[in-house]
């Protein structure tokens, strides 16, 4: 029978990129990590990793087997976690990464409420629009907006159909006019949000099957989502922001939604984990809690 220890060494080696990283994570020697993977390969009768003096890479068989290994380890971890939490009560640490605007203005207050409901859970919150590296940084779960670039991550849905909205302050629109078509956006000052320093060159908008790319012209650039929203509130230009971040401002009249018949690409909100083994009961509780709060927030301000 395949050893779960060998499975974990294999997965850790892939995630860390070397036997040394797997050994460090599991408190064994690199030689022991290498032997564990060889033992797994011998049992399966296939090569899982191609080794060189400088690097490791998965074979085709290794890529196929990796998903099964993650599922097996995840099922074992979920079972162990359920037993511990049943006998010990819900406790432990939740290390969460969240984007700036949502994190400061919504999540922070909601986590206070979550902590009152589960007083033995310890919360650690990292707020930053730079996406945390879940394999290398001290973060268990991240709240992410948009489609996942890394298909190996586990995504737990919060708001699957969420989108961004284009909006500006009444003062800005009174001064510069209201754009009636996407093409007219080129005549306006755009507040350009560029997380992780990635320059945003255009907005892609949809109306049914019709798609148009709008080039951006702006004098305000930021890598912080909250700053972009504050600039919009101050009347510095037009912004495209996640609906959950601006729906209260629109509801209160502080911002006005523009071109409502045109939609941006979907940016689903999810809780993301590096491994299914980290989807503990604590994480499931937080997922359900945030689903309720996010849906309630949107429904209240769209009513």
TrEMBL record:
It holds the Pfam family LysR_substrate. The keyword Cell division does not apply. It comes from the Bacteria. Residues 1-59 form the HTH lysR-type domain. One of its GO terms (molecular function) is DNA-binding transcription factor activity. Gene3D superfamilies: 3.40.190.290, Winged helix-like DNA-binding domain superfamily/Winged helix DNA-binding domain. GO terms for biological process: DNA-templated transcription. Keywords: DNA-binding, Repressor, Transcription, Transcription regulation. PANTHER family: HTH-TYPE TRANSCRIPTIONAL REGULATOR (PTHR30537), HTH-TYPE TRANSCRIPTIONAL REGULATOR SINR-RELATED (PTHR30537:SF21). Belongs to the LysR transcriptional regulatory family. This is LysR family transcriptional regulator. It comes from Serratia inhibens. The lineage of its organism: Bacteria, Pseudomonadati, Pseudomonadota, Gammaproteobacteria, Enterobacterales.
């Amino acid at each position: 029978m395949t050893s779960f220890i060998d499975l974990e060494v294999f997965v850790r080696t892939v995630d860390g990129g070397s036997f040394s990283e797997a050994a460090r994570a599991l408190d064994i020697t690199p030689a022991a990590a290498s032997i564990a993977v060889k033992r797994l390969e011998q049992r399966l009768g296939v090569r899982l990793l191609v080794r060189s003096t400088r690097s490791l890479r998965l074979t085709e068989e290794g890529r196929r087997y990796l998903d099964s290994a993650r599922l097996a380890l995840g099922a074992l971890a979920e079972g162990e976690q359920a037993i511990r939490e049943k006998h010990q009560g819900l406790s432990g640490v939740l290390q969460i990464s969240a984007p700036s605007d949502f994190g400061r203005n919504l999540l922070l207050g909601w986590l206070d409420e979550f902590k009152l409901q589960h007083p033995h859970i310890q919360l650690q919150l990292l707020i930053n629009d730079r996406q945390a590296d879940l394999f290398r940084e001290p973060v268990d779960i991240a709240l992410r907006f948009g489609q996942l670039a890394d298909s190996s991550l586990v995504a737990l849905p919060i708001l699957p159909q969420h989108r961004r909205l284009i909006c500006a302050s009444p003062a800005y629109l009174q001064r510069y006019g209201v754009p009636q078509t996407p093409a007219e956006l080129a005549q306006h000052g755009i507040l350009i949000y560029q997380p992780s320093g990635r320059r945003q060159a255009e907005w892609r908008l949809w109306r049914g099957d019709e798609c148009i790319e709008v080039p951006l012209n702006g004098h305000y650039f930021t890598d912080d989502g909250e700053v972009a929203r504050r600039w919009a509130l101050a009347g510095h230009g037009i912004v495209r922001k996640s609906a959950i971040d601006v729906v209260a401002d629109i509801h209160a009249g502080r911002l006005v939604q523009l071109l409502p018949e045109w939609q941006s690409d979907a940016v689903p909100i999810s809780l993301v984990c590096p491994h299914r083994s980290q989807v503990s009961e604590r994480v499931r509780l937080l997922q359900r809690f945030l689903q309720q709060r996010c849906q309630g927030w949107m429904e209240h301000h769209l009513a």
